[in-house]
Design a protein that fits this description.
Heat Shock Protein 90, five-stranded mixed sheet, five-stranded antiparallel sheet, single chain, 12 strands, Beta-Lactamase, alpha+beta
Length: 459
């Protein structure tokens, strides 16, 4: 069952229930009003009969019977019975009494002073009337032919109105659900037209005010993020293919050149060393690509542990010594370290070492003197590591792009060093650790990278 049918049924049930409750309420109130009005008329007839019989001396029983039977206010099947203190009938407007209450009912009337009751078809009202040292009981009975007839007519009108109303409600429900869901149907049709090949397409946001407009706006924003992700992915694949193709092509051409004819030992050694260098570059590139993918995998694993940043930094420095034996590192603590917890963060030690290794490697790679200054600063929430070099720096127009995969600044491209993966990988890892990576640089003077990570709280 689709939403359109469910909404139509739900709308029809709600409105039909309200209409049914309204009709039942009208019928019940009308029935109560008819009964109360008829009881009032019976009481009035009983009081009038009692007054004429007891209080007016000129009216005897025969005259009163004539008056009762010829009154224009007499009711259908009306009977008025007057009982004395001994419960004997002293007057009846009819020759034969067709209804006489039992003595228990008469006693209840005497005790209460007035009692209204019904035996199914007929309604009865009994009252007491004290006069001439007697306590009379007058019981007026009748059948409300006109009131019940009107009530039956009202019942038919309400049933007919309810049936007609149900038909109108169903039609209105169909129209209502159509108008309500038509924007969603239109939105669904527009969404079905969006594929990977036309992610730039957007759906109509309508009036821009209601919930559907908000939904359309959020969906369009999601499309923008998907489009950006697709473009980034395509650019990544294109750049990765290009970066992988270059060393492979160089290796293939060198092998072909060597295999064309017999060469001396020195020539083979030169070629093998060149192949070894290309292989190292290729391995490094592949490791970088795997690192980018691994950072997303680690996000899902979430197996973090307590890590000391100073140990990670020293480990990265030791690893760099193999490639840069002349590198010089100065480590400073900006503040007096009173609590060891300020050096401890929660994270993945291998990923954090990858971050500092890449940053320190860049500092050494692009610094002729290979001098790097490391400064640690602390507060109650974060531990911040500043890594400064005296290298070639980064041009101002390239600063905003250095975190894009495979992007290299102009001066780095001229030196033909790196693949543009390191900083992109570092940023993803730092974001995974709920931290921040900021780069600032002055071309020709040097570059400073700031790594801010949340430390564990004391206690």
């Amino acid at each position: 069952m689709n939403i359109r049918v469910r909404l139509t049924i739900l709308f029809s049930l709600i409105v039909a229930s309200i209409l049914l409750l309204f009709s039942i309420s009208i019928y019940i109130l009308s029935a109560d009003y008819r009964k109360e009005e008829f009881y009032s008329r019976l009481e009035s007839r009983a009081i009038t009969t009692a007054r004429l019989l007891v209080s007016v001396d000129e009216v005897d029983i025969a005259l009163l019977k004539i008056i009762d039977n010829n009154s224009i206010h007499s009711l259908f099947r009306e009977q008025v019975v007057v009982l004395d203190s001994k419960n004997q009938v002293v007057y009846s407007n009819m020759d034969s009494v067709w209804y006489f209450p039992d003595l228990q009912m008469v006693q209840q009337i005497r005790d209460r002073g007035k009692k209204s009751f019904s035996d199914g078809e007929h309604e009865h009202v009994g009252i007491t009337y004290p006069a001439k040292s007697e306590n009379y009981v007058i019981i007026a009975s009748a059948y409300d032919r006109y009131g019940k007839s009107k009530l039956r007519n009202l019942q038919m009108v309400l049933i007919t109105g309810l049936l007609v109303g149900l038909g109108i409600i169903v039609m209105a429900g169909i129209v209502f659900t159509h108008q309500t869901l038509s924007p969603i149907a239109k939105m669904n049709a527009e969404i079905s037209m969006i594929t990977a090949g036309n992610l730039e397409k957007r759906i109509d946001e309508g009036n821009g005010k209601d919930e559907l407009a908000t939904l359309a706006h959020n969906f369009n924003q999601m499309l923008e993020r998907l489009e950006a992700a697709f473009e980034s992915q395509q650019q990544f694949v294109s750049n990765a293919s290009h970066e992988l193709r270059n060393p492979l092509a160089a290796m293939s051409s060198q092998l072909q050149a060597v295999l064309e004819k017999e060469r001396d030992k020195e020539r083979y050694q030169v070629t093998l060393r060149s192949l070894e260098e290309d292989t190292r570059r290729l391995i490094k590139l592949i490791n970088g690509l795997l690192g980018l993918a691994q950072s997303d995998v680690e996000r899902q694993k979430g197996f973090f542990q307590l890590v000391r940043l100073d140990e990670v930094l020293f480990s990265a420095q030791q690893e760099l010594k193999y490639n840069f034996p002349n590198a010089q590192f100065w480590v400073e603590f900006g503040d007096l370290l009173e609590e060891e917890s300020k050096l401890i963060v929660k994270g993945d030690p291998s990923l954090l070492q990858t971050v500092f290794f890449n940053i320190l490697e860049n500092s050494c790679k692009f610094s002729p003197e290979q001098r790097v200054r490391i400064r640690l600063e602390f507060d109650t929430t974060y531990t911040t590591v500043f890594i400064e070099d005296e290298g070639i720096g980064i041009p101002e127009e390239d600063l905003l792009k250095v975190f894009q995969p495979f992007y290299r600044a102009k001066n780095a491209t001229l030196l033909n060093k790196g693949h543009g993966i390191g900083l992109s990988l570092c940023q993803k890892i730092i974001q995974l650790h709920q931290g921040e990576l900021v780069v600032s640089s002055v071309e020709g003077i040097g570059t400073t990278l700031m790594v801010r990570l949340p430390n564990i709280q004391p206690g």
